[in-house]
Amino acid sequence: MSRHDIQVHINGRTQHATVEGRLTLSDFLRGVAGCTGVHVGCEHGVCGACTVIVDGAAVRSCLMLAVQADGTRITTVEGLADADGTLHPVQQALRDEYGLQCGFCTPGIVMTLAALTAGATRPEPAQVMNALSGHICRCTGYQGIRRAALRLCGIAPSSPEQAHG
Ligand code: FES
Ligand code: FES
Fold first, then answer.
1. Where are the bilayer-spanning segments (predicted)?
2. Most buried by CB count within 10 Å: which residue of 43, 49, 96, 149?
């Protein structure tokens, strides 16, 4: 079994580890780095629950090997809120719009939206909806998530058409 030394920057701290070549990034983050906010559902890139940000891009961590993450900067949902507990705007929007229920899908959705809204310009609603289409939620019916996403685009989802259309 091949083993590899890796160094990864996770949520502002540096982690060194020796990992098997077959270890997925999702299992590394949960089992080695202790980031259990990284949820694992389908394990084959469909549900989006395991999404984290790697060097600025939203990535399905079940489809990446830990060894491939060597030298990268990773943000998981644990690294988003401020140290004083102030929520990231994406987290706040989902909270305000009741965009979660059991919470299993939520960290992945949060990380996708956080990556999408990290730039200087606001994403277009179509971009955000397209990104959300890669996430499966079994609880909410998506409307609260959709309202939160529209808010992040600068659209107050106050009209029934925007909120529920
Ligand atoms: S667990 Fe990675 S996409 Fe479903
Ligand atoms: S809130 Fe339960 S799966 Fe989305």
1. none
2. 149
Share of the chain above pLDDT 70, in %: 95
Q: What is the pLDDT of residues 101-121, one digit of tens each?
A: 999 999 999 999 999 999 888
Q: Indicate the number of domains in the chain.
A: 2
Per-residue b/e over 1-23, b at no fewer than 16 CB within 10 Å? Answer: eeeeebebebbeeebebebeeeb
CATH code of the domain covering residue 12: 3.10.20.30
Ligand 2 within 6 A of CB of 101: yes
Residue where one domain finishes, among candidates 48, 78, 108:
78
Structure tokens at 101: 């229920």
Cα–Cα distance, 41 to 22 (Å, whole number): 18
Max avg pLDDT among 85-94, 114-123, 150-159: 85-94
Residue 135 has pLDDT above 50, yes or no: yes
How remote is the CA of residue 135 from the centroid of ligand 2, in Å? 10
Range of the domain at 56: 3-78
Give yes or no for residue 146 CB within 6 A of ligand 1: no
What is the pLDDT averaged over residues 58-69? 98
Mean pLDDT across 48-59: 98
